[in-house]
Amino acid sequence: MAKYRYVYTTFWNDPRVVEEMTAEDKYFFLYLLTNESTTQIGIYQITKKQIAFDMGYSMESAGALIQRFRDHHKIIKYNDETREIAIKNWGKYNLNRGGKPILDCVKSELKEVKDTSLIQWVGEGISNDSVRIVYESYYDTSTIRGQKEKQTEKEKQKENKKEKQTTDSEVCQSVSSSSDYAKLIEFTNHNITPVLPTIAEHLGYILDDYKDVDLILAALQNAVFNNARNKIKYAEGTLINWRKEMITTYQQLQAKEEREKNNKRQQSNQSSYQKPKGRTEVVPEWFNNRNGEEPTPAAEISNNTIDFEAERQKVLEMLGKKESVEA
């Protein structure tokens, strides 16, 4: 994975850059921030000859630029003896996010710094507490001469710490190649949008908050699948909902999805075994009149009803008349 350094677009709006730096100064400053020798800690070793070669300048021009940035702009320090350069406010833009991988890488690189006064100078501009504490642990009031006297002892210690240094180197390498943060950067860059510094910083905050990179990647994949307009914001909303459901790891998410699949499978099986509901047959009108008889209207049926009381009176009257005749 390629190594890269952040350069914020606000660089071009900085009053000092706009008003105090010439075009050559701006070019040189960008070189100091992004050249191949830069490190995670803002302190690295580089010779004036290398600077002159990279920029196409003479040794004298390279030396003059270093002196101008050191004495006039006061934004770098250069140790002519150790060939180390330090950039002021490096930590303000490149070390504002902590985490174990970052801290391990910082510790590994700080061990290689020979002029420890540069560590203090850069450390004063770091806003992240966890990173600044690491810098403070390397502060040393001794001079470069004092460091030379200890150099022999350090060389002996290096042999004993060779295994540990190898491990630290591997940890540092993992930060730039296979760390969780790099996975998020790579996925976002390939599937969502080119990763600008602001986006990279935001992804770092998400990783610090939710920890589980696989869970975050699942949320991002869900946003891509649903073709969300703002996919990173959509993924954050998904993560918030999962957290409300007490889902904070990718394993918990998988368990939830498995439960939902089982529930759907059971519901499908139950519906397939249910008996069909009975039908109500409607008898057509023609079936009742299949003998060719016309249905009797309700009104006619009502009129043809026999009045039994009236008939009884008639019979009694007839019997009475008959008895009177016979008498």
The structure class reads mainly alpha
Number of distinct beta strands: 3
Q: What low-confidence regions span 5 or more consecutive residues with pLDDT below 50?
A: 141-145, 173-178
Residues in helices, as a percent range: 55-70%
Distance between the termini: 140 Å
What integer is the average pLDDT?
A: 80
Q: Please outline the major beta sheet.
A: 3 strands, antiparallel
Radius of gyration: 45 Å
Number of helices: 18
Query: Which band does the percent of strand residues land in?
Result: under 5%
The helix-strand sequence is: HHEHHEEHHHHHHHHHHHHHH
Described by the principal axes of the CA atoms, the overall outline is elongated
How many domains in all?
A: 2
- The strand line-up of the biggest sheet is 1-3-2
Describe this structure in words.
This protein has 327 residues and is mostly helical. It folds into 2 domains: 9-177, no CATH class; 180-266, Arc Repressor Mutant, subunit A, CATH 1.10.10.630. The chain is built from 18 helices and 3 strands. It has helices spanning 15-20, 23-34, 48-55, 59-72, 90-94, 100-110, 116-123, 129-136, 144-160, 162-177, 180-191, 197-210, 213-225, 231-244, 250-273, 285-288, 298-303, 308-326; strands at 43-45, 76-79, 84-87. It has a 3-stranded antiparallel beta sheet. A hairpin with a 4-residue loop joins strand 2 (76-79) and strand 3 (84-87). The longest helix is centred in the C-terminal third of the chain and has 24 residues, at 250-273. The N and C termini lie far apart (140 Å). Mean pLDDT is 80; it is low at 141-145 and 173-178.
